[in-house]
Every structure is written in C-alpha cells, then in structure tokens.
Amino acid sequence: MPDRYAVIGNPIAHSKSPIIHEAFARNTGQSLEYIKVLAPLDAFVDTVQSMIAEGFKGANVTVPFKLEAFQLANQLTERAHDAGAVNTLIFNEAGITGDNTDGAGIVRDIQENLHIPITGKRVLLIGAGGAAEGVLHPILACSPSLLVITNRTLDKALTMVKKVEDQGEYRFVSVNAYAFHDLQGQQFDIVVNATSTGLTDTLLPLPLGIFAKGALAYDMMYGRDTPFLRFAREQGAKVADGLGMLIEQAAEAFYIWRGVRPKTSIVMQSIRNL
Ligand code: ATR
Fold it and tell me: What is the pTM of this model?
C-alpha cells in the first residue's frame, strides 16, 4: 500500500493540494496517495489522531487549523516556531513534528519563478494576521534593505515589529510599521498583500504612488483578480497572485516527506489552466 498523506481543513472541497501532490508524485516516480480531509471545526486533534492510527505519514494543514496544529505538534522546526503556525505535519516514531513551508513558498516563488531578488529591496508587507506572520521571517532572512508592515489595526503591526526587534536577529534590515495613510510618499519594490481582503473584494486604502518603477505586487490569495492586484496594475506594477506560493509550499512539504524536490514549473502551468 502506498504511503498516505492528506490536507486537513474546513472547508476543504476547493483544495488544489491533492492535484498538486499527485502531479509531484508522478513527476518524481514516487508512489503515494494524497486525499482531502474535512475536519469538524471542534475536532481537529481527534481527526489527526485517527489519521495517525490509520497509518498516515503526514498532512498539510490549512484554514482554520494552523494554530491548533502548532499547539498539537510535540516538536517544531525553527521556521514553524518563528511563524507561530504549522502548515505541514510529519508523523513518525518521534511523534508529531510541525513545520511551516508557507514562507519558503513565497520566497521561492518571488525569487526563483518571478526572478526578483528580495535582497536589498524595499518590501511592504500588508497585513498582520496569521498569513503575514507566516512569511515575515523568511522574507527578512533574504535581507531586504527595508521592511515596512502596514495593517488596518496598526497595533498588530507594531507588535510584529517589536517582536522582530526583541529577537535582534535581523539587525541589518530596517523594520517599521505604518498606518495605511502614513505610507504616502514612500515607495516600495515588492508589495505583498497578506490580508484577507481579496475574499471580500475590498479595496485597501493604500495611497497612490507606493509602487517604485518596476515594482512587484504580490497577492497571497490565488485564483482571482483581487482589488489589490487591479489597483497595482493601474499603478504600473507587475502583478502575481499566490498560486506560485501554493505550489512552492507544497513542493517544500513534498521534499520534507519524500526527500525528493519536485520540479514545480510543469505543475504551475497545468494548474493555472484548470
Ligand atoms: P489570516 O490567517 O488570513 O492572516 P487573520 O489572522 O484573520 O487571517 O488576518 C486577516 C488580515 O487581513 C489582518 O491583517 C486584517 O486586518 P486587522 O488586523 O485590522 O483585522 C486584514 N483585513 C481583513 N479585512 C480587512 C479589511 N476590510 N480592510 C483591511 N484589512 C483587512
């Protein structure tokens, strides 16, 4: 029987993860099965425990269970610890290990697929929820010259900045928080939307002129042209949605589980055409 993996979420019907992992398995000659698991909102832990009992080797975790997965894991990788959330679980003799591949996914998509180095760039991160927390450290680790966090609730952005300062790990990056309207007059090379506003088609109140010449606007949401991406395009920025990040975070999870790194370019094209 092939090794079994799953993505656990609620809702889960829309998930593209099984198609992605099946394509990776085909392309790398690995034999595995990957299914969607709908966990009841109040039974994430029970769901994981029964999957372990059934012999599953690992799982991806999506909305709304990334924090519960973080709490459940009996060991965490450094990047899961930094993110404060877990999107990849490994089940083995050591118990449940929690990792987070989201940050690696966005960094790889921007640098390798879109060919835009983050090093030395001015980066604006919009949002201060779980999605923003998940990518903050991996982006900082690429040594941008400046990282500004902006958020509707400014306090949350200030808390994220303070945490980074207290850790003292990225002393060479200038890290600041500003309210949306205080971004007036500033310019960025890479602007990442990590808010959930794409879901509700809400336009963020960003000032005009924040995109430097040739800037990239990246929306972590995928599969729809969000108001943020439309705004950025009108301002002359290059735009990308989060499909590449989705595929790259999956590739990183596949690598952790199987020890083989799948080629993502072929999958990228076929998923986009679905
Ligand atoms: P996720 O796990 O997707 O990050 P979250 O932790 O609920 O979800 O965070 C949602 C993010 O989207 C937050 O940064 C939130 O801003 P607040 O911290 O002010 O709530 C942002 N967001 C959601 N709706 C928004 C809106 N209409 N305008 C601006 N920001 C919004």
Answer: 0.95
Q: Domains plus CATH for the chain?
A: 3-100 (3.40.50.10860), 103-244 (3.40.50.720)
| 156 in contact with ligand 1, CB cutoff 6 A | yes
For residue 128 and ligand 1, the question of a CB distance below 6 A is answered with: yes
By CB atoms closer than 10 A (0-12, 13-18, 19+), residue 199 is exposed
Provide the residue count of the chain.
274
- Averaged pLDDT, 96-103: 98
- pLDDT tens digits, 183-242: 999 999 999 999 999 999 999 999 999 999 999 999 999 988 999 999 999 999 999 999
Residue nearest to atom 30 of ligand 1 (CA): 152
Please state the separation of Cα 193 from the chain's center in Å. Answer: 11
The closest alpha carbon to 247, from 219, 266, 228, belongs to: 266
Tell me how crowded residue 55 is: count the other CB atoms within 10 A of its CB.
10
